Amino acid sequence: MTSPAVEIVDLVKRYGSTAAIDGLTLSAARGAVTAVLGPNGAGKTSTVEICEGFRTADGGTVRVLGLPPASAALRPRVGVMPQSGGVPPAARCGEWLRLVSRFHARPLDPGALLSRLGLSDHVRTPFRRLSGGQQQRLSLAAAVIGRPELVFLDEPTAGLDPQARHACWELVGELRAAGVSVVLTTHHMDEAERLADHVVIIDRGRVVAEGSPAALTGAERQLRFRARPGLALEELLNALPIGSAAKESPSGHYIVEGQVDPGLLATVTAWCAAEGVTADDLRIERRTLEDVFLELTGRELR
Q: Where is the ABC transporter domain (predicted)?
């Protein structure tokens, strides 16, 4: 099918007088990984929970695999990993996954899935006694065990150590290779760059940018270095080619953008030398998704 796995048009969700989602429109393609990014309170979790059928919208339309989110026909076709875990505290790890598997016609093998996610030694451990990372992994296992067509993953790697994060990434990659549609929220920009085919950045309940990671970050390279705070960047710009840009962000960290070539590098290092400044950690790199995110949503804490 060519219709989107998830299609949202003009979605509105209010909590009292606050509009958590304010006319949001986005779509997630079938067989692709769509990452939804945004600051705390941007409306990510509310959007996902409406798609999962756990909350009702106050306006707009939502279709999941072509159906309303609350449709009973979606239950065997959609896997859900909620942010809060969604597992009874007293449920034992292995028993819970076996129970969930019985609700599906062709489930994955529970034992193999537990092994894959490093939970084989905790089969008889109650959920409440698992570490935060282990709870996350069990919730992920429960979301994918039924071989769903679409999986919602809300902050799937929150609290995971590097090994567990990579295991999660590999599993998401295998889901996509098998044609499963994945919608995930995350605060890890590197995770979105690595996993997502399409990224949607939302802020204050609206989409502020979307596209592939490559399209959002562009092909531009940047020159970065560290030095004492408060350098006179206006003087540096006068020495750089027309069209270049320079900024200090955060304090003592400098970014020069433009046609990054040997001439620009020489100009920057010569200017630093004339100012009696040592350019520490000098490097050339591509603009990251985190750079784009901060430019669009700001750097202030919320």
A: 6-229
State the Cα torsion 90-92-93-99 to the nearest 10°: -100
Residue 221 backbone phi and psi in degrees, to 5: -105, 160
Cis peptide before 250 (omega within 30 of 0): yes
What does the DSSP 8-state code read for residue 67?
B
Q: Is 79 helix (H, G, I), strand (E, B) or coil?
A: strand
As a 3-state breakdown, the chain gives helix, strand, coil percent values, each rounded to 5, of: 35, 25, 40
Q: For the chain, what percent of residues have pLDDT higher than 90? A: 75
Average pLDDT estimate for 265-280: 91
Burial label, 105 (beta-carbon count in 10 A; 0-12, 13-18, 19+): exposed
What is the Cα–Cα distance from 226 to 248, expressed in whole angstroms? Answer: 9
- Rounded Cα distance, 131 and 213, in Å: 32
Q: Radius of gyration over alpha carbons of the chain, in Å? A: 23
pLDDT of residue 47: 96
Nearest CA to 300 out of 70, 97, 39 is that of 39
Rounded to whole angstroms, the Cα distance separating 129 from 167 reads 22
3-state secondary structure 129-197: HCCHHHHHHHHHHHHHCCCCCEEEEECCCCCCCHHHHHHHHHHHHHHHHCCCEEEEECCCHHHHHHHCC
For the stretch 175-189, pLDDT in tens is 999 999 999 999 999
| Sheet order of strands, 78-81 included | 78-81, 150-154, 181-185, 33-37, 198-203, 206-211
Confidence tier at 219 by pLDDT (50, 70, 90): low
Nearest to 37 by CA among 180, 209, 182: 209
Q: Determine the 3-state secondary structure of 70 from DSSP.
A: coil
Structural domains of the chain, with CATH: 6-216 (3.40.50.300), 219-286 (3.30.70)
